[in-house]
From TrEMBL:
Source species: Oceanobacillus piezotolerans
Residues flagged as site, Important for catalysis: 141, 189
Record's protein name: 3-isopropylmalate dehydrogenase
Binding-site residues for NAD(+), renumbered to this chain: 76-89
GO annotation, biological process: L-leucine biosynthetic process
Positions that bind Mg(2+): 221, 245, 249
Entry's Gene Ontology cellular component terms: cytosol
HAMAP family, per the entry: LeuB_type1
UniProt function note: Catalyzes the oxidation of 3-carboxy-2-hydroxy-4-methylpentanoate (3-isopropylmalate) to 3-carboxy-4-methyl-2-oxopentanoate. The product decarboxylates to 4-methyl-2 oxopentanoate.
Cofactor entry: Mg(2+); Mn(2+)
EC number: 1.1.1.85
Amino acid sequence: MNKQIILLPGDGIGREIMDSAKVVLQAVAHEYGHSFTFHQHAIGGDAIDQYGTPLPEETIQACQNADAILLGAVGGPKWDQVAVHLRPERGLLGIRKTLGLFANLRPVKGFQALLHASPIKEEIIQDSDILIIRELTGGLYFGQPSERRDNGNAVVDTLSYTREEMERIIDKAFESARIRNKHLTSVDKANVLESSRLWREVVEEKAKDYPDVTVEHMLVDACAMKLITNPSAFDVIVTENLFGDILSDEASVLTGSLGMLPSASVRSDGVGLYEPVHGTAPDIAGKGIANPLGMILSAALMLRFSFGMEEEASEIEKAVNECLEQGYHTADLRIKDGIQVGTKEMTDKVLENLTAKSISDSICNTYV
Ligand code: ATP
Ligand code: MG
């Protein structure tokens, strides 16, 4: 398959870990006979320095013509004094909005070698494998009016959604559940919110189109509790913007390795933007010690969600797991009796495990 991939390294460690994702993708392309073409563009602080804006027109154009986008991270102390509408983070919000990326997908699945670092008991999280789908472009974060009144002594924020906005995210969730373990938990606050009551109606209507998926409604407070007491009860969780923001951060703690988690922001036609959950880590930027695995796992998600390359994606995930099982880790992770390495060595280990796998496959094939 021929794919055009835009690379937006951004700032801080984003610039150091992007290459790791690129070389891993090149190795996969080589193994599977795909052709990936990479185009690098500026966003965030990097773009402010070069173009005077966090989201230059040429970056927007390039992203509009892309099959998928990989993003490092944006921001950092250097741009703290910049006017709010020109902040590096505006670049990211702007590109999500321009491309209409309404679904935020965050898989939450820990690696065995790192589970000891989770604040939750290992036996509770052992078998958990969750995909959280958060609506990204509506709800309280965008509803109008959002303002101060009464001389600043009263405030109003507006939670607003259209049926259509609910339908597209709920469809996405059913489709995702269908290719996973066929269980969907829809999270709302239908005992108090009108928006949640419409949400439930839409879920019920959509459920008729996906008879193979079991659906359960859960109030957000109950869900918050169950996520840490019985996380393996979940498969796919779908919820609106604010609830999703909170629940996805809560769930990420389960894995014991927040810095390794990937995320995706996608729309219905499969175009998506993929980025690690962590930020620019200004405290370690430029030292060559950043953990590249969140970025590499984001590239795996891109293969899975945007290109439908399930096998290729899981090969990358297996190679990452293998590295950790062998004890290799960056400074932000702890593995008992492990071997601490930098960004480049960690990337090389992933590549070694990827190619070791394909070599053993080809040996097997020779003897079949
Ligand atoms: P931002 O404003 O961009 O989110 P931040 O100051 O919040 O930046 P984060 O990037 O969120 O920093 O990181 C929080 C902490 O985790 C920092 O101490 C950082 O060094 C560490 N960290 C985050 N990502 C990584 C990584 N990929 N490798 C190593 N350490 C990381
Ligand atoms: Mg941060």
